[in-house]
Amino acid sequence: MKLLIQFPGALTTVQDLGRWGYQAIGMPVSGAMDAPALIRGNILLGNQDNAAALEMTMSGPSVLFKDGEGAIAITGGDLQPRLNNQPVSNWKVLPVKSGDVLTFAGVCGRGLRAYLCVSGGIDVPVVMGSRSTYMKAKIGGLDGRKLAKDDELSTGQAGKYKAGVSCPENMRPDYSPDKPLRTVLGPQDDYIKPEGVKTFLSSEYKISPSSDRMGSRMEGSELIEHVKGPDIVSDAIPMGAVQIPGQGLPIVMMADRQTTGGYVKIGVVHALDVARLSQLMPGSPVRFSQITQKQGIEISKSEAQALNSLRDYVMKFSQTQTLTQAQPQTQSQSQRGAMNVIVNGEKFFVTWERL
Questions:
Q1: What distance, in Å, lies between the first and last C-alpha atoms of the chain?
Q2: Considering 89, 92, 119, 121, which has the largest number of Cβ atoms within 10 A of its Cβ?
Q3: Are 237 and 257 in contact (CB under 8 A)?
Q4: Using CA atoms, how far apart are residues 77 and 115, in angstroms rounded to an integer?
Q5: CA distance linking residue 224 with residue 203, whole number of Å
Q6: H/E segment holding residue 194
Q7: In the chain, what are the domain boundaries?
């Protein structure tokens, strides 16, 4: 099946789960801003979790399907999709065939980004292990850029799917806009004055219009004070890292974040809440709350359980009991392990668990 872009929307790019394993040589991860939404769409369609889809921001494209048939699932924010001019639901497997046209009625009714997942995934060249578009380096996706009118995309080999299957509401991401962003303090929270940490956890901020795929910038009147200034020796930037630069307002690092940075990091927002943050419009209020690392791990385990529950649910409606690409990993793969790590001459014992 092919997709002809008749109108590209405000910002539509090809994204998967990102370009992992290359940060050490300066390549950002990139990938979907709302990974939980992308994964759920792929599970519904019997794709690999990492299959590439179209990430649509603010407004959606007009897409003509041609040269075959397949299925789609639209997840994430509500861009008011219409198939052949008839309203259709998000979070549901919808069959499509040659001549069908998918459009979107307007800007997001709820949320900021939506994902058009297709059976077989979007088939563009793999660059450094990923199909994701990283526009600043002009790599991945379609020529490393956002989609334009008359672009044509192909899909890969489809897995097993069942038309009409939808993701139950209790298995969808929580997009509640009024919940605080759960944050583990560190690694440099001691570079912030104690009053500054209290300010960070008690203040209400607003998302700046200057936010982008690299970072979500906060606006507010309560500034966070440093102990010895905002600069540190540059170190690694994880997803959700909260930098506090000289002006004293937080910046949450998002999908296109740089690999290293030299500003103090007061904490790290949990990945699920980074995804929720990516769905908030500029001007939306934001608060932060403190959690422990152990609590963060439990949140991640709950997400893994929700995804496995969705896989089981979809399997009950599948056309065959034969395992498809979207099934959970086999038990023959290692599920946990441990290792010794030496950093700056200091020895650490590290354990890991596959979720």
A1: 33
A2: 119
A3: yes
A4: 8
A5: 10
A6: helix 194-202
A7: 2-171, 181-291
Token output for 22 = 């290359």
Q: What is the spatial distance between Cα 33 and Cα 16, in angstroms, rounded to a whole number?
A: 10
What gap in Å lies between CA 48 and CA 35, rounded to an integer? 13
Q: Tell me the CATH architecture of domain 181-291.
A: Beta Barrel (2.40)
CA distance 124 to 155: 8
**Amino acid identity, residue 83?**
L
* Whole-angstrom distance, CA of residue 150 vs CA of residue 142: 12
In the predicted model, is pLDDT for residue 35 greater than 50? yes
- Within 8 A by CB and 6+ apart from 74, the residues are 41, 81, 88, 90, 91, 92, 94, 114, 115, 116, 117
List the structure tokens of 84.
């052949």
Distance of CA 196 to the CA centre of its chain: 29
* Per-residue model confidence (pLDDT) at position 335: 65
Helices 35-45 and 293-316, packing angle to 10 deg: 20
Pairing of strands 181-185, 288-290: parallel
Q: For the chain, how many helices (H) and strands (E)? A: 4, 24
HEC readout, 28-56:
CCCCCCCHHHHHHHHHHHCCCCCCCEEEE
H/E element holding 309? helix 293-316
Per residue in 242-276, pLDDT (tens digit) is 999 999 999 999 999 999 999 999 999 999 999 99
